[in-house]
Structure prediction request, 684 residues.
Amino acid sequence: MDLLSFARGPALQWALVIFVLGSLWRLAGILLLRRKPDYAEPRSRATWRGALKLVVTRTWSRREFRASTAFGQSLGYVFHMGLVVVVFGFVPHILFIHSLTGLQWPGLPSSIVYVSGALTVAALVAALVRRLSHPVLRLLSNFDDYFSWLVTVTPVATGLLAVAHLGARYETLLAVHILSVCLLLAWLPFGKLMHVFLVFISRGTTGALFARKGAST
Amino acid sequence: MSEAALPPLETQGPRFGIKKPEQRQDIQGDLSDAARVDTAMREFVRDFGAVAATYMESCVHCGMCAEACPFYVETGDPKYTPIWKIEPFKQAYKREVSPFAFFMRAFNLKRKVTLEELEQWQELIYDSCTMCGRCTLICPMGIDIASLVGLARHGMHKAGLVPHELWAAAERAEREGSPLGATPKVFKERVEWMGDESGVAMHMDLEQADVLVTMSSIEIQKYPQALAAVAKVLNHMGLSWTFRSDGYEATNFGLLSGNADWQKDMSLKLINAAIACKAKVLLLPECGHAYSAMRWAGANVYGKPLPFKVRHISEFLGEHVADGSIRVKKDLETTVTFHDPCQVARRGGVFDAPRRVLAALGAEVRELQDSRGMSWCCGGGGGVISIHRADAIRYKAFQIKMRQVDATGAAMLVTSCSNCRLSFDDSQAHFHWDKTAHSLLEAVADHLDDAPPEPAAAAPSPGSTTP
Prediction:
């Protein structure tokens, strides 16, 4: 079995298994914990609306915080949107997802995907530099932050190299690219990348609890 | 340090606290180091449910919460980043109870927290966090860090790792019924005194009353005119009301210090007193954490819905000024800025009522640059005002508020929290500032219109307060 077959075959299958089971285990471990009943007289019963509202509105900062959060948040926007464009807009990715799930949608022109990929890498590098240089971020950061950064940037970087045929044979580059995706999938349930799911749960939880009190969100 | 060896408390001075704590990190009890750490962690996770676990799992270490915290903003010291304040507890959560705790322990991916770390974090969990919740508004994951600090305090208290003054105030409140010496006897004397001095009819220990009026010990001891003010307003409304010597102290130092058992005892005193006099409304004083403790946690401590409504005095005033049962003269012809107490406004949802009252009084309200839900904390909430060694950082945090109040150009500063007032008074003296924080309740009491009401005015109903 050559490297590409290994990457496309057992590596990807095991990565997907770890991704699915790990994510379910972590989510169940959180969500199945007890929830105490709240007997306080509610100010509002529209808790679901509060949850949905915060899930949407916390996507951007409140006006009062914008000046202090603009740079970090802009970097976040660039690489998050760049990742979405690259993962879900690139035609070969869509074909791959189609082969797994049967779902399909129109792709974006390759040039847009390439530019998005390059911007994503640039923004991620800037985010890393910021993490290393900002006193607060440096203090908070641990292995998870740096490893999660690595497993996020590697698939994008190797994907760009593969489409540009730079550095090695295309098949080798493609295999490395797929293996890096496998690493990303396998790591996701264990670290901070789990926020792809938790962001909705965490925002929704606060949105619902605070709506009940009429508190600020 | 054993409890018997603790330094004496000075509680009769302008604020409570000891001048020179013997050590930076205070310790109560005689637990061994290992038992202290184990107790802290066990008690921290004791009340852990899906909500706290969700928050613990969700942090992405973006550091944005620092920008919302007055202690970080004014010092620039990264250790005051809100989420960092619970770092040992995050570590303990991941190691002990998270979904992957087994791996964390098996491969020692998260090492055990040490006593030295908990001692170091005492300053971050108590001295430099008022649980104001401003950081909750900036967190892109929506994590309510203040609630996690509250849980961390549970662990710290059981482990005997509370700043001494705060611990002693809480212990005194549990033992005597008040953290500041406002025992039932003292309370009765002060009610009687204020009744005589102001010529206002006071009601004490009535067997039946529609409204049970509670006070903060800060008001009883430092701002006793609040006793007369609330009586004056309720008499003006013609309501049936009472103070009760078996349930009057609304501040909850059990909550502030992190002792859930004491919190429950203190809340149950008020709940039982309200039930005993068949009150329809339990009226909370101008105190922020008293509002959190009873309005939002009271029923949960009781274990079922409360058979009465719980209202903060500012929302009570707002509602009854609006329905005409409190009639005020519109002669406060001055510019006023209002400081929103964090627990009442941002975390309690009371925003419009005080502004409605001020408008009815004829004041021109000039909002702070950051007001309502975004208001900066005075720096003294969450028990911080009681911790003497925290004075320096509290003064730093206060400077944001000072700048914003000055920028409004308002002639008068009003708030609806006596703890905030205490913090303002102390900082005013420290900075030789020319602004004094005034009470919303006292402003209303001073401007009541006692002319006979219009015939169409509806009789007040204390139970009509809308949720």
Observations:
- The two ends of chain A are 55 Å apart (CA to CA).
- Chain A has nine helices and no strands.
